[in-house]
Write a structure and sequence with these properties.
By secondary structure, the chain is an alpha/beta fold. It contains 20 helices and 18 strands. One of its GO terms (molecular function) is hydrolase activity, acting on carbon-nitrogen (but not peptide) bonds.
Length: 539
């Protein structure tokens, strides 16, 4: 049966309306939006064009007190960090990595625990209005079908739309840390390099695994393609050029996303400066032919102005992760410079132990506020429409779903969130739904979440799974697994002082807390111009 939401307040994020709210009758049939018409207009039913939407085959909802938006997209997250939520703070990324991941040599997780771990991420995402995720998954000691299969199954069972990537690294730790030859003891460098299999072995095993994982993902969600796999070399400093080239070729051949981390920290920028003879990582990726419209780059903080032009020309998407960047002290992405250059920007929560939350409404609000600190011209601060576009349309492209989801428009997948405008104080009084969505809403107003035309959240409960039972089971299994956490942490104590010294030396080279792309004065005046009339929030 089709459903028409009559007189709904809609933030469609389509080309015609952007983030400007309007009243509409929204007709949904099976898994797609059929029509979005000004409230009160006669609309076509799925069966008979020209008949009124109160046709017997259409269920009508009075949506006068409801707000409909496209489902939020989390374009960069790590569900595998769920087990390590809350295990560290006040440390930068390079030290955090030592404390927040299981050590090399640890036994792989049981498939059931992988399923439960992923289900925690799925539940948190859905209850927060997220309908699509790009989950960058890493497993130790390595990825297998036995560990990625439960990830596909969990997202499928919960009803999420998911692109699941297999992270791969073929560069040893000793070769991805600035000043490693000076700060790491010789025996530690040797051990690091000897413990890493040869790049050709890593690549052979990884791409064989990826082919099988892609086929396995396609068998989920009734073959609809709602669950997908994509390749993901972890980052340029963690991947050989051979791995990067082959991954890019595989992604293009399969019409899928290529996902990498990019310039998350100053240490990564410093490493690139020495490794690539003064060229930047972005220039190096361009030299290799890696960049393109299917490429999604998480973070993108320590960029130069030249990098911005290359990224814009390539059509790649940067995924902004403001909360993890703040928690780890990684830096502040050059928001306005990226937008001025024409680079597409999406939003992500990052991992469950680098942010400690997967709630995208938090990400949306912080993204809208953080960049007010980096520019005295307040007309250049993030616009509500830009932020919502990053959380929907741009996110859909970043996750590999361009043209399928990300806005409320005829023909697109019916992935949407229904907010009750009267349930909380968040929209009281209702002055501007878009601004209040960004700055006031915390998820408590969410009444329903729909994915692929299916109701997956209703009044705070997941409809397709028994969330309470799954969470209880996870708590019990996680407690047994984490018994060894203190021993793992102690295992890293010998390494941390050397990473700390690398960190100190890097910041001594250039102590500025802002990337070069954000430090260059633009030709505009720093005196705010007169604010234009009319709405500015449409992207």
């Amino acid at each position: 049966m089709a459903t028409e939401w009559q007189n709904a307040l809609v933030i469609a994020m389509d080309d015609a309306h952007g983030a400007v709210p309007f009243r509409a009758d929204v007709l949904v049939d099976r898994d797609r939006f059929v029509s979005v018409r000004p409230a009160g207009e006669r609309a076509a039913t799925p069966d008979t064009a020209g008949e009124h939407s109160t046709h017997a085959d259409v269920s009508v909802v009075d949506a006068t007190d409801l707000l409909l938006i496209p489902g939020l997209v989390n374009a960069h997250t790590h569900s595998w960090e769920i087990l390590f939520r809350g295990t560290s703070d006040r440390v930068p990324l390079e030290v955090w990595t030592l404390l927040s991941y299981p050590p090399a040599g640890v036994a792989p997780l049981p498939p059931r625990l992988v399923y439960l771990r992923t289900m925690v991420a799925a539940i948190e995402s859905l209850l927060g209005g997220v309908t699509t995720v790009l989950d960058d998954i890493g497993e130790l000691p390595r990825q297998t079908l036995e560990t990625i299969g439960p990830v596909f199954a969990a997202y499928d069972d919960a009803g999420l739309r998911a692109t699941c990537t297999g992270t791969v690294v073929d560069v040893p730790m000793a070769d991805r840390l600035p000043f490693a030859e000076e700060v790491l003891p010789a025996e530690m460098r040797v051990a690091s390099r000897e413990s890493m299999p040869a790049p050709e072995v890593v690549q052979r095993d990884y791409f064989a695994f990826s082919e099988a994982a892609r086929e396995l993902a396609a068998r989920h969600a009734g073959g609809t393609g709602r669950i997908r796999y994509a390749v993901a070399p972890s980052a340029p400093q963690r991947a050989t050029d051979g791995l990067l080239r082959r991954a890019a070729a595989v992604a293009r051949e399969n019409g899928e996303v290529l996902h990498l981390h990019l310039l998350e920290t100053k240490l990564q920028a410093e490493l690139a400066r020495t490794r690539y003879d003064g060229r930047t990582i972005v220039q190096h990726l361009d030299d290799l032919g890696i960049l393109g419209e299917n490429v999604t780059l998480a973070h993108g903080i320590w960029l130069t102005t030249g990098d911005l032009d290359l990224l814009a020309q390539s059509g790649a998407t940067i995924v902004h992760n403001p909360l993890s960047n703040l928690k780890l002290g990684s830096g502040i992405l050059p928001w306005r410079a990226l937008h001025d250059a024409g680079v597409r920007v999406a939003l992500g929560s990052d991992g469950a132990s680098s942010n400690d939350s997967l709630r995208m409404l938090e990400v949306v609000k912080v993204a809208a506020l953080l960049h007010t600190l980096t520019d005295p011209d307040y007309d250049e601060w993030p616009r509500v429409g830009e932020v919502l576009q990053a959380a929907t349309v741009a996110g859909a492209r970043a996750a590999g779903w361009a043209g399928a989801t990300g806005c409320i428009a005829p023909g697109l997948k019916a992935d949407f969130v229904v907010f009750d405008l009267t349930k909380t104080t968040n929209f009281t009084p209702l002055n501007d739904a878009a601004r209040q969505l960004v700055f006031s809403e915390d998820g408590r107003s969410i009444r329903q979440v729909w994915v692929d035309g299916r109701l997956v959240v209703d009044d705070g409960r997941c409809t397709l799974i028994d969330a309470d039972a799954l969470l209880a089971e996870f708590r019990a299994e996680a407690a047994r697994y984490l018994v060894d956490l203190p021993e793992w942490t102690a295992f890293r104590d010998d390494i941390e002082p050397f990473v700390r010294e690398s960190y100190r030396r890097t910041w001594a080279v250039d102590p500025s807390p802002l990337p070069q792309a954000a430090r260059v004065s633009s030709p505009r005046s720093t005196t705010p111009a007169a604010r234009p009339t009319g709405r500015e929030d449409t992207p």
